[in-house]
Amino acid sequence: MNTFLGATPLIEHVESDWFTDFFTELPNEFWRRAVPPEATEAEIAYVERHLEPEPGSRFLDVPCGSGRHTLALARRGHRVSGVDISDEALGHTRRAAAAEGLEINLTVGDMRTLPHDGSFDAALCMGNSFGYFEAAGARAFVEALAGAVRPGGGLVIDFGVVAESILPGYADGVRRVMETGDISVEATNTYDAARSRINTTYRFTRGADQVDRTAVYHVRTCGDVVRGLEAAGFTVQGLHGGADDKPFEVGDSRLLITALRR
After folding, report:
1. Cβ contacts of 48 within 8 Å, gap of 6 or more
2. Number of helices and strands (H, E) in the chain?
3. Which of 22, 111, 126, 219 could form a disulfide with 158 if both were Cys (CB 3.0 to 4.6 A apart)?
4. H-helix or E-strand containing 257?
5. What is the SS3 assignment for 211?
C-alpha cells in the first residue's frame, strides 16, 4: 500500500477546504509585505541551480499566490503559468506583470485539478501550500503535478510543516505577533494529534479593519512525502533545509525537495 496518507484514517473526518475563502486582500497584503525580495531571489536561484532549466522553459507555479515566484521567473525569460484559488492574489499579479510588461498566464483554479498534458518543463509549489490537504487531496495534488510536468521535467516543493521540522521542541498554544507596516497579525497554533495537523488561528489587523481566519496544515514525515512523490512518478533528487543547499536535518525550519519526473 502507498503509505503517503493512503490508509483508512482512524477517525473519519471530512476536511473543509478552508483555503477557498482564507486569502482575501488583508491576509494577502500581509504576506506580500512579509517576504523580502532577497528571499525570493535566493529561492529562484535555488530552483535554477537544481533544475537547470533551458532559457524560455515552461514553468508552472502552483499555487502562485500574489506571484512573487511567477514574476521572478518571468523576468528571467521563462514562460510561466500560475494557478491559484484567490482571485484577489491573481489580480495583484496581473497588475504587477502589466506594469513590467511581462507575459504570464494566470488561472483561478484548484491546484488538485491541473491539466494532465505534460506541457510544463518544471513546477513549483512554494510556501507551505503542500500541507493544505488531507490524504486524498494530497494524493490528488501530487498526481496532478505528475500529469502536468513532462517526463524529465523538474519539481521543487517547499514544505515548512514536515514533522521533522515542526515537532522537535513544539509548544502548543503559543501566541505570536507579527507586524509589517500598518498590518499586525496574531497567530496561535494548536496541534491535533489524532489527525496529525496544526490548526492556526490568525487575526489580521490594519487600522479599523480586522479579519479572523483559521488555517489547517497537515503534518507529514519527510519519508511519507518522498514515498508519495515516487509513487506518483517522480524521482527525488535532493532534500535541503534552505535555499543555501544545506542538507535537510531534523529541526530545520523548512524542507525544500527537488525531484524529476520519470
Report:
1. 76
2. 7, 11
3. 126
4. strand 255-261
5. strand
Sheet holding 255-261, edge to edge: 104-108, 79-84, 58-61, 120-125, 149-159, 255-261, 234-240
Q: What is the pLDDT of residues 106-123, one digit of tens each?
A: 999 999 999 999 999 999
pLDDT digits (tens, 9 = 90+) for 5-14: 444 333 334 3
Determine how many CB atoms are found less than 10 A away from the CB of residue 1.
5
Mean pLDDT calculated for residue range 56-73: 98
Q: Where are the alpha helices (H) located in 35-116, listed in sequence order?
A: 37-51, 68-75, 87-100
Please compute the mean of the pLDDT values over residues 85-101 and round it to a whole number: 98
Residue 102 DSSP symbol: -
Residue in the block written with cell 509513487: 231
CA separation for the pair 59, 150 (Å, rounded): 11
pLDDT value, residue 126: 96
Residues contacting residue 79 through CB under 8 Å, at least 6 positions apart? 56, 57, 58, 59, 103
Residues in Cβ contact with 124 at an 8 Å cutoff, skipping those fewer than 6 apart? 47, 59, 60, 61, 62, 69, 155, 156, 157, 158
The C-alpha angle 157, 232, 85, rounded to 5 degrees, equals: 50
What pLDDT is attached to residue 128? 86
Element (H, E) at 173: none
